[in-house]
Amino acid sequence: MSTNIRDKRRKEIIEISSNLFYKKGIANTTISEITITANIGKGTFYEYFKNKEEVIDEYIKVYFENMHLKIFENIENYKTNKEKILFIVKSLFMSKSVDEKFTYIFIEFLRMTFNNNKEESRKLYEFNQQNIDLINKYLIKGIEEKEFISCNTLNIAFEIISSILGNIVLSLSFEFKECDKSTKYNVKTILNSIEYKNTF
To answer: What is the 3-state secondary structure of 68-101?
Structure first.
């Protein structure tokens, strides 16, 4: 089987699985249901994925990668590094910008993560490493351009992502969009604390 056909089949399995996760929930979706809906045998499923969790991992990873491409297409429309970081946060995590299906699956994933599952916690960190690196890039630029004071940029980027995820976790019982205002406020507060203030 050619690489193109394998890639297409892999994407089809991810798409069908994510639709089922969104419709029924991750816990209530079985591999049997995925294979029946995809019209493939279980053996074919296991050629591509070890288990259901690996499908979820791939779905979230690909979503963030695609969002990063969209961010890069538009980020230069924002003048300051602070505005660029707020745009990144809005694009990745705030409800008006985030796909509804992804929001539901990501929240389900967070539920799994915060049930003391060390493996899922490790994956959550890996998913967000790209996001941390992206925010860190503009924090460094902000320091170079005297927009931000000298600071440990990686720690600040991690603090921003942790704050966002914390808000999402707190809002798990409510509408995801209800944490948008708090997320924006928290991120602005963090950035305001490192803003360069010319005292001369």
So the answer is: HHHHHHHHHHCCCHHHHHHHHHHHHHCCCCCCHH
Q: Which of 109-123, 138-152, 157-171, 185-199 has the highest mean pLDDT?
A: 138-152
Query: What was the pLDDT predicted at 22?
Result: 94
Judge: domain 52-193, CATH 1.10.150.120.
Answer: no
Alpha-carbon dihedral 127, 130, 133, 134, rounded to 10 degrees = -130
Burial label for 112, CB within 10 Å (0-12, 13-18, 19+), is: middle
**DSSP 3-state assignment of 126?**
helix
Res. 79: pLDDT tops 90: yes
Domain ranges of the chain: 1-49, 52-193
DSSP string computed for 140-159: HHHHHTTSB-S--HHHHHHH
- Residue 195 has which token pair? 């803003």
Instruction: Answer whether 35's CB lies under 8 Å from 45's CB.
Output: yes
| Mean of pLDDT over the chain | 87
103 Cβ contact list (under 8 Å, min separation 6):
95, 176
Question: Are the CB atoms for 196 and 146 separated by under 8 Å?
Answer: yes
The CATH class of the 1-49 domain is mainly alpha
